[in-house]
Amino acid sequence: MTQIVMHSFAKALGSRKITNDDLSRMMETSDEWITQRTGIKSRFWAEPGIGSSDLAVDATRESFKQSGTDHVDAIIAATLSPDHYFPGIGVLIQTKLGLKNIPAFDIRQQCSGFLYGIQMAHSLIKSGTYKRILLVGSEVHSTGLDISTRGRDLAVLFGDGAGSCIIEEATTAPTNTTRFEIIDSELHSDGADARELWCELPGSVHFTSAITPDEFQHGAVFPKMNGRRVFENAVKRMTEVCNSLLSKNNIKSEQVSHFIPHQANTRINEMVANLLQISPERCFNTIQNYGNTTAATIPIGFTDAISSNRFKSQEFVLSAAFGSGFTWGSAIFKVV
Hints:
By secondary structure, the chain is α+β, with helices and mostly antiparallel strands. The protein has eleven helices and 13 strands.
């Protein structure tokens, strides 16, 4: 059976560290208020003029350095904050890296984007379509937030960052880096609650223009969230999909050595881990340092966990995500 692995994880962050105290000087909030509700202590924002493709390129160069080559057959890029309305960031990453004439796929599954990308890459390699794929999640949220008291509920949550890895067959992957066999994944979506976490404008459905000055003035260009609805669904759906995936692969939760979930809220992750009977020391969180970097949270989590030497051979690693759409999913890996 073909063994397909992820390896050469790397991250890139915005260059400006923004603490909760920094935000309290921009809006009516406090370190205590943010920490108690989210677990976030700081996040990083990019310099003006830096787009999500730039952070993706920075992370990818480090992945290429670790893997020993810059050869890939395809790019899969996940983001909800592209540099431009179109084209997507995949082709921008491609040209900035000097990669010629390979396909570049863009995924718009928001917080679940990296897991969607894993399943897509796994299937494409397993089918023989491509041999070696770059998967990257990247976000620059700071330029799309309402940095004011009006927008504080969401403005305090998000940071800028990127995470990348290489996916290929184990037989061709380097052995001097931590490798994770992709055992299985499961994905879901339900658009019935799309408006509970969304950014309405700009949008092609709005006649006669994608956005008007009045709509901009009233904040329709900024993301909106029904926090209670999202929290409840995130806990329910992430728990369901993890249990389903573990059961399907005859793996018990006590066999999971590491749980690396999407980083939206520390309380969500703690509740999901508790419902899965995964002890706190096995749940790896980074949200306290980086905030929610959406499609980049999971690869950033893997990068930091590798750096702290958390993994041992043959351990099972579980991941899960929930986000706008609603979309959600889970994936299980084995350290090889």
